[in-house]
């Protein structure tokens, strides 16, 4: 009996970090990338912001135990997942777009394409569909068997972070200062809540004063959007052109018009300022560095056992579990 279970488990779970490569599904599911692109396009037509929201999932998935779809797991009675972690709760959105992609892929090629790979393909598509660069992604990731709210809480950075802190954080993932600045350029699309900026509008670092690096007329605009004591779920664009992936984000930072403290600090601190200036002047330099950063971030893997989930929100039922149930 126990040997039967072991056999099933070893079939269902691959135990080593898989080498990632382009065109991983070219034999097993040749339509995979087109299907992802099509669903993302439809999602964008329904709600423009949804593609930005999906792109953000790659960051929050890959930084916590590697790109393994752990972020997508719903909580269970035995496991606190990452969806309710500090940086994710009431903030990450558009999980249903990932579900829609998964459903389409399961119809075309059941049990083949991992949720972790879906996130990486969809993030690339979000950028390409918003006017940014297009690139070839490496694929072949497996989905985790668990998730860790605690790990997410420890790792994911707060919008209050300064550049020094972010440099150190990214270094832990072998991402350079240039990678940090380029990847922050993802904030060229999407929105953020007043919740994420009221401290810098009214009480930066506990001073009782606003962040002095905010350009005054921009601060007036933000004060109107996010009045003291107002509704903190109200959202504003992360840059002046929040549906177009371009280098406007960096032009804004140079003018003191960054939305988040973690954005503006990239211009305030000398370690990151030159990259901000360069990207503000040269959009192709930004696009090249962004693609390089996304590929490096996509390479992060935990090396733990995994599987191809049938439903991105839940771990597959182990054949062993079914056997145990039947035997009882
Ligand atoms: C460098 C450190 C980073 C910090 C501190 C940070 C923080 C944040 C915060 C606070 C928000 C708004 C959340 C809210 O108000 O609900 C946000 C939104 C967003 N972030 Fe980041 N982020 C960082 C890096 C990244 C990276 C590396 C990516 C992707 C490659 C990314 C993609 C996005 C996107 C696309 C949005 C908008 C999402 C939407 O409209 O739903 N961020 N980020
Ligand atoms: C940056 O943030 C870290 C962590 O919050 C803090 O310890 C440090 O003093 C800050 N650095 C500067 C120069 O403000
Ligand atoms: C960073 O690179 C070092 C040396 O190549 C490697 O040992 C380490 O595992 C890498 N860290 C991550 C998080 O990938
Ligand atoms: C500002 O923040 C500090 C420290 O976090 C706190 O002690 C103070 O009460 C805050 N002031 C206001 C006006 O909220
Ligand atoms: C802009 O950056 C690209 C690298 O992506 C470089 O080839 C080009 O020479 C740069 N242009 C200028 C005007 O510096």
UniProtKB/TrEMBL annotation:
It is found in: Secreted. Its EC number is 1.11.1.7. The active site is at 60 (proton acceptor). One of its GO terms (molecular function) is heme binding. Residues 1-17 form the signal peptide. CDD domains: secretory_peroxidase. SUPFAM superfamilies: Heme-dependent peroxidases. Ca(2+) 2 binds at residues 239, 241, 246. Heme b binds at residue 187. GO terms for cellular component: extracellular region. One of its GO terms (biological process) is response to oxidative stress. Pfam families: peroxidase (PF00141). It catalyses: 2 a phenolic donor + H2O2 = 2 a phenolic radical donor + 2 H2O. The keyword Calcium applies. Belongs to the peroxidase family. Ascorbate peroxidase subfamily. Belongs to the peroxidase family. Classical plant (class III) peroxidase subfamily. Removal of H(2)O(2), oxidation of toxic reductants, biosynthesis and degradation of lignin, suberization, auxin catabolism, response to environmental stresses such as wounding, pathogen attack and oxidative stress. These functions might be dependent on each isozyme/isoform in each plant tissue. This is Peroxidase. It comes from Penstemon smallii. The lineage of its organism: Eukaryota, Viridiplantae, Streptophyta, Embryophyta, Tracheophyta.
């Amino acid at each position: 009996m126990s040997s039967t279970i072991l056999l099933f488990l070893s079939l269902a779970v691959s135990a080593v970090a898989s080498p990632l490569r382009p065109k991983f599904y070219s034999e097993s599911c040749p339509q995979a990338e087109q299907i992802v692109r099509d669903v993302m396009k439809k999602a964008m037509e329904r709600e423009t912001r949804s593609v930005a929201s999906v792109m953000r999932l790659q960051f929050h998935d890959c930084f916590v135990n590697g790109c393994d779809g752990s972020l997508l797991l719903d909580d269970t009675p035995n496991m606190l997942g990452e969806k309710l972690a500090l940086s994710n709760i009431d903030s990450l959105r558009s999980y249903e777009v990932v579900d829609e992609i998964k459903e389409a892929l399961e119809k075309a090629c059941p049990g083949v394409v991992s949720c972790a790979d879906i996130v990486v393909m969809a993030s690339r598509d979000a950028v390409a569909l918003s006017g940014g660069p297009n690139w070839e992604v490496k694929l072949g990731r497996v989905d985790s068997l668990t998730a860790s709210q605690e790990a997410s809480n420890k790792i994911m950075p707060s919008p209050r972070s300064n550049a020094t802190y972010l440099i150190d954080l990214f270094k832990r993932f072998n991402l350079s200062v240039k990678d940090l600045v380029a990847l922050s350029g993802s904030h060229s699309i999407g929105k953020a809540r007043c919740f994420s900026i009221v401290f810098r509008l009214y009480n930066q670092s506990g001073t009782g004063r606003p962040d002095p690096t905010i350009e005054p007329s921009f601060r007036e605009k933000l004060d109107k959007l996010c009045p003291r004591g107002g509704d903190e779920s109200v959202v504003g664009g992360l840059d002046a052109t929040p549906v177009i992936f371009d280098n406007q984000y960096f032009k804004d930072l140079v003018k003191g018009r960054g939305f988040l403290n973690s954005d503006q600090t990239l211009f305030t601190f000398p370690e990151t300022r030159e990259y901000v200036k360069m990207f503000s002047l040269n959009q192709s330099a930004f696009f090249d560095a962004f693609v390089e950063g996304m590929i490096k971030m996509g390479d992060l893997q935990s090396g733990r056992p995994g599987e191809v989930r049938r439903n991105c929100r839940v771990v597959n039922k182990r054949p062993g579990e079914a056997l145990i149930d039947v035997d009882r």
